TrEMBL record:
SUPFAM superfamilies registered for this protein in UniProt: P-loop containing nucleoside triphosphate hydrolases
Top EC category: hydrolase
Family the entry assigns: Belongs to the DNA2/NAM7 helicase family.
Keyword Coiled coil: no
Residues in DUF83 domain copies: 509-613
Domain DNA2/NAM7 helicase-like C-terminal: 1035-1234
GO molecular function: 4 iron, 4 sulfur cluster binding; 5'-flap endonuclease activity; ATP binding; ATP hydrolysis activity; DNA binding; metal ion binding; single-stranded DNA helicase activity
Descriptive protein name: DNA replication ATP-dependent helicase/nuclease
Length: 1279
């Protein structure tokens, strides 16, 4: 029996035959497809556009079948009609096949609750049993299912060309966890994606493609809105479609595997899942971060909250010995019923392997869900593993990993496309209205915090017709601007004020509640109501208690409105949230946006009009499909096909990288949950230090200090030791990538609850200090016990991967194609690759800048030519700064020369350290500048030049400072600062441009008429995590692109002052083709000097010999093989040898500050830090770019008995090898296996070159005490 008993008629052969002729639903004289046009809150937002709807009703009238008559007393309007199938859609090669018999969409009664073990045979051998009530499921390719659905739905201009769920063969990288594997498999669109249709991610939106084309449609919409207006709440979701026993009830099963390619892709997916899922190996307590089953106590508590939310809005779930669920599942199969509002989802828990079935009824059945999606079920499963989600029971959250802000959800009803653009783009445009609103918010919030309300009169607040006016007495302001994350609902948001109030309702018992209070500056809007309702969900999850009401306060009218949450409101809003999450995911995977609104009266005032129209044209849209007529042509007439290719290409690369970062973040969380271990961007099991928090200077921020406790929480519970007494090294077991200035989130270890976000201000081996915008507080509880709870809690700090950086990159890219003079100029230079122009003819000595360049004695000829290149550039200049050639000094003199001309200069680089290094040298030259950036991220010597370090108290003083200072410095991603809004500069200089991706570089260039790129594309390229993005060109910097197109724009710096002759010859031979030269004889002949020589072993004496600047210690005669541990690789014996050499250097009088140790692998960095007793810098090669030391030790790590198996992408990258070879000034010591490394072409050339210098030293077993070494290596590995 199905979960809901409904009478059904058996499928008649005649009806079946007629319906088998097409995959689309055909209108029938007596039977119409039942499909609601709108649900929930969406009804209300249509009422705001009725004036526009009436105007548009007289437009085009496509042919439709006549609408069915309205059912008497029906509370909803009839469904919008679907267009007749196109001839292509009517073609069905299988039309002669008999239709499948009707099958009940339920699992067998006798089927026990089971765990799911994947096996490929299940996909092929199972079939339906015509005689029983059991359904056996078939997994079909996602794109086939969606294509079949698309044939029954209108085609969208912007979303019909690509399939966001198209299957691509998944990677065989076994290091990914299950969830990450599935996500990665789904995230890569098929190469043939543009040949298939795609159901819009917003199925309700599909019925909104152009609902104003037909007058009858408008009349029905008006009737629908009138009906809705009579209801008690504009958010009420209409009841389900009435069941008609004469309607066809045949089930729409997903198609069989249609091709070998699709079959292979699905089998590979399940093979990967099977690799991770083991029924016996997984403990039930292990779950994804933020899951309700983190701990038994937390699980039970969250289940109670979920139940209370469900029951608090009028639901009475029938619990038949079942269990409450609030966790994520992988969708294996989706089955739907024709002409009947019902869908069945077959789910599997990818951690435990348990199988479940969810039945979607009524409006929920129209949710767009495909096999491979992730869903979160909030509700009850019965003993047979079934759960009903309908108008009255439970919730389904689609793509819960996508946390959508409540503001975005509320704003998306009027135009989903605009909301998705808001999510994907971050610009530096600021409005006066937004600024005023922000100021009013802060003033009222500050007043609430500092002043306790003393008005003796308790205000009366109207909570609507059902609840009436109630007296609300404010008892406590719990928090202001409270960041709330609701991963169970896929929501997030910042709540203006969290308050505790006492609600007095006429004679009834007073009720004390916690609720959100939102301030609004505009007029009353249903968007505001929707936002408050969603915030009640977030607060319910955060405070672990049911919150069913909220408050809206309108600042200008001094009116307070009460909001009561109803089940119908939540259903409509959650479905809208699901649709928006689908839209966001589809935009990320296929770059396809929701369709254009096509309402000129609304579109012409939209802030995204320029961007929206360009995207539309870039993806095949035209004037007709835009619906905007001349408005569209006016904004895109300059946009060529070549521009479209460039925009699509780089937009796709940005999305690929964004997806990869999301997968890495999800993998880190999954690994954290399973193993409880640190990753390179996180620290776990931290406790608060004994030092109290304190305000940071000049800013209303609070600094908290954390130390590490190694013992698990269970062992420390009840301990009366002070946290500081059991502190240990933060970096004991990891190469911690966290650094000062990083954005981080602070969460609890026990419940995985995110408590706050902040910025690291200091990190050391024993302590990390984090700055927060307000005092730390655990949600709920007694305010008097806040401090005690904070000290008892165990904390985790995770680096917050700033996804806004990708929003900035997309905005930079689309800015390139806007219709203005600056964009047109840059487009010509960067997209069209026009040749840059330079001033020709003689250079007059009257120019003070030219005179300065020729008279400055500290400059060499290369540096003079580079500065003159900058001074004569009309468009741009490229400065190739080879290692040690003094490019920073050159830039300082270039700035001085430009200032003599009165030019305004914008200095940028990708990293804060690169910007500050240049500024420190400018400061030493007496040049004033302004540094834009977060106080925590700026170098101490530069902080006085930040606004936070100045005594400025008014906007006028800030403007005056900008007028006085000609040099402004900011990172490439910091250009969105409001301080720079509307600013223009004469020239922009980007340092380290070879390491900056093209989309990031575009941002600063928008502020200047001329630009200079300084870098070296022969060193490390931009860091790109996505292999696919890297292979398609994401690693090609703008510097590289322009230098290859126009070599004449390059001015190289070739005289280097870092490396001695022997070291320089290595990079010259491998990379620079003998273009590098030593700047002076002193540099060429520099040698390491030992202040206090000491005796040592013969092999070590040979290694340290100052007369041999380059030494390669060959370990082929030693058992120095690499060791693999999961995904990491290290070499303990190499670490031991490096430690011995380091000790020898220190014993001979070399200072630790003059020694650097580098290696390609993070795991080897950890090993070396434990092996070396001396205090020396140890980092990866990548982190050492731009650095140098007198002596550099390099550990190659890779060594195995079968060198043919040595495949290393890190060592095969000649850019990385170039960086490694150019860090040393006087001594370069390399340790590795010649036999293994010779299999890498670049390293083979390196070894041959070192051999020419007689620099290879082969160690043998007699050089070391084998037993002592083995013992020491064992200790190193275990430490």
């Amino acid at each position: 029996m199905p979960p809901k008993s409904r009478s059904r008629k058996k499928l008649k052969s005649a009806s079946s035959s007629s319906n088998s002729n097409s995959n689309s639903k055909k209108p029938n004289a007596s039977i119409q497809p039942s499909q609601p046009s709108k649900f929930g809150i969406q009804h209300f937002f249509q009422r705001h556009t009725q004036s526009q709807n009436a105007l548009l009703a007289s437009q085009s009238h496509p042919d439709h079948s006549p609408p069915p008559p309205n059912a008497p007393n029906s509370p909803i309007a009839p469904p919008l009609l679907e267009p007749a199938p196109t001839p292509l859609q009517l073609q069905n090669p299988k039309s002669d096949n008999p239709p499948p018999p009707e099958v009940s969409p339920s699992l067998s009664k006798s089927t026990p609750l089971k765990r799911f073990n994947f096996s490929p045979e299940m996909l092929i051998k199972q079939s339906q049993d015509d005689g029983g009530d059991e359904v056996t499921w078939k997994i079909s390719p996602v794109n086939q299912r969606l294509q079949a659905l698309t044939k029954r739905l209108p085609v969208l201009a912007d979303s019909s060309k690509h399939n966001s769920f198209t299957i691509n063969q998944c990677s065989q990288n076994k290091s990914l966890n299950t969830a990450a594997k599935v996500d990665k498999w789904l995230s890569s669109p098929s190469p043939k994606a543009d040949k298939t249709s795609l159901v819009s991610a917003n199925r309700v939106g599909l019925k909104r493609v152009n609902p104003f084309q037909d007058a009858e449609v408008c009349e029905r919409m008006a009737d629908e809105n009138a009906c809705l207006a009579s209801r008690q709440s504009p958010f009420c979701t209409p009841p389900s479609l009435p069941f008609c026993p004469n309607k066809l009830a045949n089930i729409v099963e997903s198609d069989q595997l249609g091709s070998r390619q699709h079959k292979k892709a699905l089998l590979e997916l399940l093979d990967q899942v099977e690799d991770v899922i083991s029924v016996d190996d997984f403990a039930s307590s292990k779950s994804e971060p933020y899951s309700s089953k983190v701990q038994d106590g937390q699980c039970n508590e969250m289940s109670v909250i979920a139940d209370s939310i469900v029951k608090g809005v009028g639901i009475s779930p029938q619990k038949v010995g079942g269990t409450s669920s609030n966790r994520c599942f992988l969708v294996l199969e989706v089955s739907e019923k024709r002409n009947f509002p019902e869908s069945v989802l077959r789910l599997v828990d990818d951690k435990s392997g348990e199988e479940r079935a969810v039945y979607l009824w009524e409006e929920w059945s129209y949710s767009v869900i495909a096999p491979g999606d992730t869903v979160n079920v909030i509700g009850e499963f019965d003993d047979e593993g079934k759960c009903n989600v309908d108008h009255e029971n439970n919730f389904l959250i689609v793509h819960p990993d996508i946390l959508v802000s409540g503001t975005r959800v509320a704003a998306s009803f009027s135009c989903p496309r605009r909301t998705v653009l808001d999510e994907r783009l971050r610009c530096n445009e600021y409005s006066i209205a937004a600024l005023i609103g922000t100021l009013l918010h802060q003033i009222f919030q500050a007043g609430l915090v500092k002043e306790t309300p003393t008005d003796p009169k308790v205000p009366t607040v109207d909570f609507g017709s059902d609840n009436g006016p109630k007296k609300v007495n404010l008892l406590e302001v719990i928090d202001i601007e409270e960041m709330a994350w609701g991963p169970n609902y896929g929501l997030k948001g910042m709540i203006d004020v969290s308050v505790r109030v006492k609600v007095e309702s006429g004679g009834k018992e007073d009720n004390e509640k916690i609720m959100p209070l939102e301030f609004k500056t505009g007029k009353s809007s249903m968007e505001h109501t929707a936002q408050v309702i969603l915030y009640t969900l977030l607060m319910s999850e955060r405070y672990l208690k049911h919150i069913d009401s909220g408050l809206l306060y309108y600042l200008q009218s001094d009116q307070t409105q009460g909001i009561m949450v109803r089940r119908s409101d939540l259903v409509g809003l959650i479905m809208r949230r699901n649709e928006l999450a689908n839209d966001i995911l589809k935009a990320l995977t296929t770059q396809q946006l929701p369709p254009m609104l096509k309402v000129p009266s609304m579109c012409k005032g939209c802030r995204h009009l320029d961007v929206c129209t360009i995207y539309h044209k870039a993806f095949g849209g035209n004037t007709e499909s835009s619906g905007l007529g001349d408005i569209f042509d006016l904004h895109v007439h300059h946009f060529s096909n070549a521009h479209g290719v460039f925009l699509r290409h780089w937009g796709r690369l940005i999305d690929l990288e964004a997806k990869e970062m999301q997968l890495l973040k999800k993998e880190t969380r999954h690994s954290r949950n399973l193993k409880g271990e640190d990753s390179s961007g996180s620290l776990s099991y931290l406790v608060l230090d004994e030092l109290p928090h304190q305000k940071s200077h000049k800013e209303n921020r609070f600094i908290y200090h954390f130390v590490r406790r190694d013992l698990p929480a269970s062992d420390l519970s009840g301990s009366d030791q002070h946290p500081i007494t059991t502190a240990s090294s933060l970096t004991k077991n990891l190469d911690c990538m966290l650094k000062s200035g990083d954005y981080v989130t602070l969460s609890t270890e026990s419940g995985h609850q995110i408590v706050a976000s902040g910025v690291i201000v200091e990190i050391s081996p024993i302590r990390v200090s984090v700055s927060f915008s307000k005092r730390l507080r655990l949600p709920g509880g007694n305010p008097s016990s806040v401090t005690e709870k904070l000290y008892k809690e165990f904390w985790r700090i995770d680096k917050e991967e700033i996804m806004t950086s990708f929003s900035i990159m997309r905005f930079n890219l689309i800015q390139l194609f806007l219709q203005n003079e600056q964009s047109s100029h840059l487009r010509k230079m960067i997209v069209d690759l026009a040749a840059p122009r330079f001033d020709s003819g003689c250079i007059f000595s009257q120019d003070p800048a030219i005179s300065y360049v020729w008279s400055e004695k500290s400059l060499n000829d290369d540096q003079r030519r580079a500065i003159l290149k900058i001074l004569t550039a009309k468009d741009y200049a490229l400065i190739l700064g080879m290692p040690g050639t003094g490019k920073t000094s050159t830039m300082v003199h270039a700035v001085k020369a430009l200032l003599m001309r009165g030019a305004s200069i914008l200095l940028t680089s990708y990293t804060n350290s690169a910007v500050d290094n240049l500024l420190i040298k400018l400061k030493s030259q007496g040049i004033d500048f302004l540094r834009i950036g977060r106080h925590e991220s700026v170098h101490d010597e530069v902080k006085g030049h930040c606004f936070s370090g100045m005594n400025l108290s008014s906007v006028e003083e800030i403007k005056l400072k900008f007028d006085q200072v000609k040099v402004v410095a900011v990172t490439c991603l910091g250009i969105t600062s409001p301080f720079l809004f509307g600013k223009k500069f004469d020239i922009c200089i980007i340092d380290e441009a070879g390491q900056t991706t093209l989309p990031v570089s575009l941002g600063p260039l928008m502020f200047a008429s001329t630009f200079v790129l300084v870098g070296d594309h022969y060193q490390l390229p931009p860091l790109v995590q996505s292999a696919e993005a890297r292979e398609n060109g994401m690693g090609i910097s703008l510097f590289c692109r322009l230098s290859e197109a126009h070599p004449q724009a390059i001015s190289p710096l070739q005289s280097q002052y870092r490396m001695c002759q022997s070291i320089m010859e290595l990079s010259n031979a491998l990379i620079y083709g003998d273009r590098l030269r030593c700047g002076s004889p002193e540099v060429a002949n520099a040698k390491l000097n030992f202040p206090r020589p000491s005796s040592c072993s013969s092999w070590l004496k040979a290694v340290l010999n100052p007369s041999r600047p380059v030494i390669f210690v060959n370990t082929d005669m030693l058992p120095a093989f690499e060791v693999r541990d999961h995904k990491t690789v290290n070499n303990p014996l190499e670490a031991y040898i490096i430690a011995e050499i380091t000790a020898g250097l220190v014993n001979n009088g070399i200072e630790g500050n003059d020694i650097g140790i580098i290696t390609p692998y993070n795991s080897q960095v950890n090993l070396l830090r434990h092996a070396c007793l001396a205090s020396v810098e140890i980092h990866t090669i990548d982190k050492y770019q731009g650095r140098d030391k007198d002596c550099i030790l390099l550990s190659f790590v890779r060594s195995n008995e079968n060198p043919r198996n040595c495949i290393s992408s890190l060592l095969a990258d000649w850019h990385r090898i170039n960086v490694a070879l150019t860090r040393a000034k006087k001594k370069l010591i390399m340790v590795g296996s010649c036999r293994t490394l010779s299999k890498v072409p670049t390293l083979k050339l390196l070894i041959d070159k070192v051999d020419e210098q007689s620099g290879i030293l082969s160690m043998c077993k007699k050089d070391i005490n084998h037993k002592t070494v083995l013992k020491r290596c064992s200790q190193i590995r275990e430490s």
